[in-house]
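Ticket #4471: structure export looks truncated?
Reporter: QA, pipeline team
Priority: medium

Steps to reproduce: submit the single chain below to the structure queue and open the exported record.
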Amino acid sequence: MTIKPFMKAGVATVFGGIACLMAAGSAAAQNMDRLAEADANGDGSIEWQELVDMRASIFERLDRNDDGVVSSKDSPSFGPGKGRFGQALEQVKQSSDADGDGQITKTEMLEAPSPLFDNGDTNEDKILSAEELSALRASAGL
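Actual output as written to the record:
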């Protein structure tokens, strides 16, 4: 009888581990998709400036009250946008809130590091070539 609870715990652990791997894979895929969106000129490579320009565009969309910072004050009052905004704000805070004050200035967002870009830019020329992007996808298991 004592075996069943352990078996249930073991099965739960396995399924939990699978779920974590799927979530990690999904997050990696989402990050790669976001990075690919930066290819504004459609040439198959991503220049650092294209990434910065994309960040500026995202900042403009998130700064709904045009006060120069992205914070919870920019969140819609109700509806599905409220939840999506909260998720987006948390993601942006994790990568861009350099001073930890809970709001992101445009400078913070534009100057935030991009580990994914940096890891993929193996020749450090501030351009992710098609080959580097392909290698980055492969290293993420995509």
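Status: closed, not a bug. The export was complete when the record was re-opened. Leaving a note from the reviewer for reference: Residues 38 and 50 are 6 Å apart (CA to CA).
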